[in-house]
Amino acid sequence: MTIFHDEQFVEIDLLLRRGAHINRSSLAQYEFLCQNFDELQTFYRRYGCSLFQHPDGFFYMTVKGGLIRSRLLPKSCVHLGEFIALKARDPEITRSLGRIAISQVLQDIETLVPRETLQAVYAPKRRDAVVDEYISDEIMRALKILADLGFIEMTDTAIRPHEAIHRFAELARHDNAPGDDAKLHLNTQRGVVFHDAGSDEEYEGSGDDNSQD
């Protein structure tokens, strides 16, 4: 039986098309991708897509002008992804089985990130009187998007970064402003898509069936 008749393929196909990441924690889906990676790469290439397996093991797909719609992650998700990726390296997080309380994320980002940066990323064009409320709400919205795309696992009280969060660490390593050579490497080897249309802002790319908010 062809792999495309397998129920696993249908589930994985839907996840990849909306920009999700398949981590080792999704064992059955992960093993299916490992076993059929070459065939699936060829399949998605026909749609103008690139299927990647990151050196850390997880799988994801990028869309580059093909037949599948794509979107760019909101700047808030990119910033928060970088923040979590760097925080995940803290030895204290390792001792807590990788879990980080959401309240701790909110407290740390408020303490460590300059307020003007928080306002520019999470509450642009908002009045000072409502900035704090918008920052908190946007961080929670960004966490849910990151969870939906397989970057983190999220409960009501805590998150646990998956290995896919390291995509953001690679961007943060270049202070979010890589040179031409680094940008080429990130694009071709790590599936990072940059957006330069009319601004100096850059976003992590992900395939998705939804448009950017």
Question: If you had to describe this structure to a student in words, what would you say it looks like?
Answer:
With 213 residues, the chain is mainly alpha-helical. The protein folds into two domains: 3-71, Orthogonal Bundle (Arc Repressor Mutant, subunit A); 73-198, MukE-like family, C-terminal domain (Arc Repressor Mutant, subunit A), CATH 1.10.10. The chain is built from nine helices and seven strands; from the N terminus they run ααβββααβαααββααβ. It has a three-stranded antiparallel β-sheet with strand order 4-6-5. The chain has a two-stranded antiparallel sheet with strand order 1-2. The model is unreliable at 195-213 (pLDDT under 50).
Short description:
The protein is mainly α and 213 residues long. The chain contains nine helices and seven strands; from the N terminus they run H-H-E-E-E-H-H-E-H-H-H-E-E-H-H-E.
Walk me through the topology:
Blueprint: H1 7-17, H2 27-45, E1 49-53, E2 59-63, E3 70-72, H3 75-87, H4 91-95, E4 100-101, H5 102-112, H6 115-122, H7 131-148, E5 152-154, E6 158-161, H8 166-172, H9 180-190, E7 205-207
Antiparallel strand pairs: 1-2, 3-7, 4-6, 5-6
Helix pairs in contact: 1-2, 3-7, 3-8, 6-7
Characteristics of this structure?
single chain, 213 residues, Arc Repressor Mutant, subunit A, 2 domains, 3-stranded antiparallel sheet, two-stranded antiparallel sheet, 9 helices, 48% helix, globular, disordered C terminus
